[in-house]
Design brief:
The chain has 448 residues and is mainly α. The chain is 83% helix and 0% strand. The protein is built from 18 helices and no strands. α2 runs parallel beside α7 and α2 runs parallel beside α11. The longest helix is centred in the N-terminal third of the chain and has 37 residues.
Length: 448
Amino acid sequence: MAAENKMGAMPEGRLVVTMSFPIMLSMLVQALYNIVDSAFVARISEDALTAVSLAFPVQLMMIAVATGAGVGVNALLSRRLGQKKQAEADAVAANGIFLSICFWLIFAVLGLLFGRWFIALFTDVPAVIEMGTSYITVVTVASCGVFLLFVAERLMQATGNTVYHMVTQLIGAVLNCILDPIMIFGLFGFPALGTTGAALATVLSQITAMSIGFFINVRFNHDVHIRLRGFRPDGKIIREIVQIGLPAAVQQSLLSVLTIGLNRILMPFSQTAVGFYGVYYKLQNFLFMPVYGLNNALIPMVGYNFGAKNRRRIERILRCALLLALGIMAAGTVLFELLPVPLLRLFDASDAMLAIGVPAIRIISWSFCMAGVSVILCGCMQGLGRGSESLAVALLRQLIVVLPAAVLLSRISLTAVWFAFPLAEAVGLICAFLLFRRIRHRLLDSLS
């Protein structure tokens, strides 16, 4: 008889820590290399930092779509494993890979055709347009690393092999940190490529990590078998992946919409304000990524135990995840309140950027703990297959409340704009709590 998967047998507190810690650590490193990337670009010029900041929503959109596909594969695969349906689990893996390749090709074409047009929406500075266009072109055409890396990692997460996931992320992050200064500034005889070099360093690191991820899955992940020989797309499985993952993709893409909207709101104040928001987002990621890592670990844990009809384990796992998320966000709030100047100095911030950024960071940090609770409740809802409710919370947090509030507050002052963030998180938290309570009553009360 096959041994029980640890998601159904290991003590809940230990399970949350052992599954989430490797993902959290790897995503911390991922956020760190985003910070390093922007820190190097900032040393070229403020125009270069602005160009990368304007291109960043395109990267966020690719990550959103890749996340959606990954969440769909993750939740569906873990559920099939919990139901002991091995053949169906293997089919989910193969169709997830196929879907990710399709998304890569779509973004490659869009990047080639519309990259320059997108940057020109926000600025008429020729240098910013050129640097932003070259950056977008590279990261979209070579985006196979993004899409296939995400699905490779989700195959590991869905089977509880989060240490392997950490290995791939660490390799990609470390490689990016090494390649960035070499390709940006032209070290060791390599030509100085500026922002194009930053983009090349990113995609080469992603492709390397993706290759290692698939090697690990084929060689060491024995809970799922990747078989592409004779593969034919299964419309039913693809629809299920999309149905589960679409809310997560839309939810993640809201970050891109939010960034685009805020760039439009901030540009009339100054180009420095846009540059600051790009810097802030990278700093925020360093705090939020561990919580998103915890959320990514939570989805298969909840999905597996929901498939196994074990209510008690789901509730204990959720409790542990909430406490851990609150601890992380409370520590982040203290850090951002006390050290805004040193954080901004990492990016060679000018006096003008400090004048904008210090009050902004302190105001936005009020929202961190509320956001942490909302993210974990949404992750639990996704694990239970209720992605639409999770999407509703995200829409409130990252679009419906924050952008209209930012527009209205911008009429008062630039500093007032930042109060839109804690306002939106408060509304999102209330909504997340009410929706989760209803889902718990409908889906969990009848389980043992």
